[in-house]
Amino acid sequence: MTKKDTGMLSGRKPDESIEDVLVRIASKHPIEIEKRINTLDKPLILECACPGWQPKYWGPPRAYPVKKPPNYEENGLRYPAVPCTIEEQAQEIIKAAKAGAVAAHIHPRDPKDCMGTHDPKMLKAVYDKVFEEVDVISSQHNWQRTDEDEVDYVGSYARSMLDLADGGNRYCQGAVVLWPPVDAFPRKYKKYVQDGVRFMEEHGIKPFHKIRSSYGARELQRVLVDTGVMKKKPYVLIHDMGHPFGWPMDMDPWMPVELITSIVQTRQRFGEEHVIGVFSGGRNWMPITMTAILAGVDFVRVGIEDYYWMYPHKDEVIQSNFECIKKIVDFCNLIGRRLAGVEEARNILGVELT
Questions:
Q1: Number of Cβ atoms within 10 Å of the Cβ of 37
Q2: Is 263 a member of any domain?
Q3: pTM of the predicted model as reported, rounded to 2 decimal places
Q4: 1-8: average pLDDT
Q5: CB 145 within 8 A of CB 101
Q6: Is residue 74 part of a domain?
Q7: Inter-residue contact 256 to 227 (CB < 8 Å)
Q8: Are strands 299-302 and 45-49 parallel, antiparallel or unpaired?
Q9: Can you give the CATH number for the domain in which 343 is found?
């Protein structure tokens, strides 16, 4: 360092030595000894949700009686990102897994018409192709509504997937447990959810609780925790934010405020030892997910299931599922947030492959 260079250090005073300047700077603002901030110093579990429930092709005009959406064309291509064949569906999960996703949430499509199906054999076909190349944690909707009043929480669908793996949980290592808004709870919901969680814990399926309001978090505590029904820890507590039936995340500047306060409230209610996640959707999916990652959540879902527009401020339709995955992986690399590996994620979630 030359005399000229050191003269620029914090306005060197006349006759002040270089040593005195360095001492003055260090004592005035010792930024180099600040303590680490460890919010991002833990692995992030990344789940890929594809192909999802959305239609690939536009519906009839009567589906939009008030206002037609941008780019509407009767019977035309609505969502080019949706894969249809078994191979295409599997490849989207495989590409995501190779990029860093360790869990998969699949609504399988029937290749004949590209429409969603609840056929367990179709789901198995997709997963079998995935498992030929990569290992992922299968995270499924293992429960289904049977009619307007009844919900089959411990019946044929979950049992079918277990039977397809000779009683193991290969195709349903985790199951989404919905906690909808109060006006959307089915009749006898408390009994259904208690019976369902008991069944899942008995058969090695980890409940992934998808909470859609702070009321849902409190109800989960009352129905499953306070009663002692749910026994296996950690609890996996997912905030469903931006989904059509989840926390509304369509208005700034409230989106980050509500996101942070909800996460903190859930941690306070259940304790620090549990897994906290955010599954996002809607136009704000990218800012929601990035804010959640910066806030230090343990688990996020990314993929076209609940997304359509790439950016909140542009009418740019997502062209492929992998585009979404790559943006979040690149963001994690940018901020230094490490993605968890598959076995590491199973340990964090309390998932045991049987």
A1: 8
A2: yes
A3: 0.91
A4: 47
A5: no
A6: no
A7: no
A8: parallel
A9: 3.20.20.70
